[in-house]
Amino acid sequence: MKDMLKSIVAGAKADYAEIRVEDSRLTQISYKGKTLENISESADSGGCVRALVRGGWGFVSFNRLDELERKMNQAVEQATLISHHVDGGTKLAPVARVQDRVVVSPKMDPRKVSLKEKKEILEGYNDIVLSYNSRINTSVINYFDKFSRITLVTSEGTCIEQEKLDLGGGVVAVANDGGETQMGRFSFGSSDDFGVLLGKEEKVKQACRTAVDMLDAGSVKGGEYTAIVDPLLAGVFAHEAFGHLSEGDNVYEDANLQKLMQLGETYGSDILNIYDTGRDTGYRGYLKYDDEGVPTEKTYLIRKGKLVGRLHSRETAGVMGEKPTGNARAISYRFAPICRMRNTCIECGEASFEDMLKDIKLGVYAKDSYGGQTSGEMFTFSAGEAYMIREGKIAELVKNVTLSGNVFHTLRNIDMIGNDFKVEDSGGGCGKGGQMPLPVSHGSPHIRIRKVIVGGRK
C-alpha cells in the first residue's frame, strides 16, 4: 500500500500533497442507572487527501483505496479553484522528512480483555453507586477504547506508520433530594494501560459520598476571595482559558488577540511556567508525530511569567514566521488537521499545600471541574467540589461554586504554585472546529490565586 500512496502523491499536480489512511477498532460501554445503554464493538476504515496549489487547499476524504487517484485529482481541482480567491495564500513552514514506524506497547492491553470482562468491571462500579445511599437515584457510567493504525505519506518524502491507543471513561453518581440535584464523579484515561480502570472501588465510593454530602452543603457567599485550586481544575484552566488562546490559528485570525498575545509580554510572576507537550507517554495527549508528520515536542507558552511561544501547525507557523511545534491534529480521516493542544500543564513549583493555606483568613478551596465556558480572555468554571478556608484551615463543604475572571489578570494573580504536580486524564476530550472529542490531557500542581471572583449566594 505504501508504494501506491507514494506514487500517487509524487504524481499529484500540486505544490504539496499528502495522503492519510486510517484503520480503527472502537469498543464502547455505557450505563445510565440500571440500564445498559450501549455495548458495542465497531471498525472504521478510510482516508483523506490534501493538496496545496498556489496557496489554496483542497481536501477530500474516502473509504475505498481504489478511488484514491480520483480523490487526489479532486483535491487538486479544489485547491486550484480556491487559489484564484486567496490573497497570498498558505505558506507551509519547512520541516525535515521523516521515515518511521511507531508501535504501541501497552502496559495492559485492552484488546486482550474480553468485552464480557469489561462489562463486568463497569457493572460492579454501577452496583456500588446504585446501592450506596437512598438519595442517589441514578448513575452515568461510560467506557471506550480505540486502537488505530494511521499511515501518512507526503510529496516531500515523509512516510510514517503510527499506531495509537486511546481509552477513557468515567463514573458519575447523581444524588437528588427535594428537587435539588448534586453529582460526584471520577474519570480515567490512558494511551497505554487498561489498568487505569481497575481497582477503583474506593474512588467510586468517594464520588458517591461527594454527591450525597453536597446535598446538605451550604452555598458560598459570592464575592472576591483568595482561592486555592486543585491540580484537576488548574489543569482545566490552563487548557481552556489559556491553551486555546495560544493556538496559532486562533491568534493569526484575530487581530485583537494578536495585540494581547505578543511574545515577550509579561503575564505572571517569574514562578509561572505553562507548557504543552506531546511527549509524556501514557497520557491521552501523547503522540510521537502530529497529523502532518511533525515530531511533537515540549513547547513552553509562558516561561518565568513571560509569553514565549504558541502552538503551531505547519500552516500557522508559515504564516507567522515561527517554528512548527507538532500541534496539527485531526479527530479522524474525515477532517483536515488544525492547531490543537496535547498535554497542557502548569509546571511544578515549590510551595507546599500547607504553606498556601496558612495565611488565608477567608478563602475558597476549589476542586475538580464540572465544565465552564470561555469567551476570548474571559472565563467561568464550575468547581465539582469546594470548601471554605478559614484561618488557614480547610473548613466546611460548599456547593455550586463558580470561578470567573479575565485570564490575563488571573495569571498575574497566581502568587503560589505547589510542589505536587499531577496530570489528570478523563474520558472526555477537546472540541474545536467541529472535531470532538480529541484526546488531550492537562496537568498542574495546586495553585493559589488572589482576587478571584467566586459566584454564590448574595
Search tags:
10 helices; 458 residues; 22% helix; PmbA/TldD fold; alpha+beta
Backbone CA Rg: 24 Å
What is the distance, rounded to the nearest whole angstrom, between the alpha carbons of the first and last residues? Answer: 66 Å
Oligomeric state as shown: single chain
Summing up helix and strand content along with how strands pair, one would put the structural category as alpha+beta
Percent of residues in helices comes to 10-25%
Count of spatially separate domains: 2
Shape descriptor = globular
Biggest sheet record: 10 strands, mixed
> What number is the mean pLDDT?
96
What's the total number of strands? 27
Number of helices: 10
The share of residues in extended strands comes to 35-45%
Uncertain stretches of 5 or more adjacent residues: none
Q: How would you describe the overall organization of this protein?
A:
- The protein has 458 residues and is α+β, with helices and mostly antiparallel strands.
- It is 22% helix and 40% strand.
- The protein folds into 2 domains: 2-216, PmbA/TldD superfamily (PmbA/TldD fold, 2-Layer Sandwich); 219-455, no CATH class.
- The chain contains 10 helices and 27 strands.
- The strands form 5 sheets. Strands 8, 9, 16, 17, 18, 19, 20, 21, 22 and 27 form a 10-stranded mixed sheet that branches.
- Strand 24 and strand 25 (435-438) form a beta hairpin.
- The longest helix is centred in the N-terminal third of the chain and has 18 residues, at 115-132.
- The protein is globular, with a radius of gyration of 24 Å.
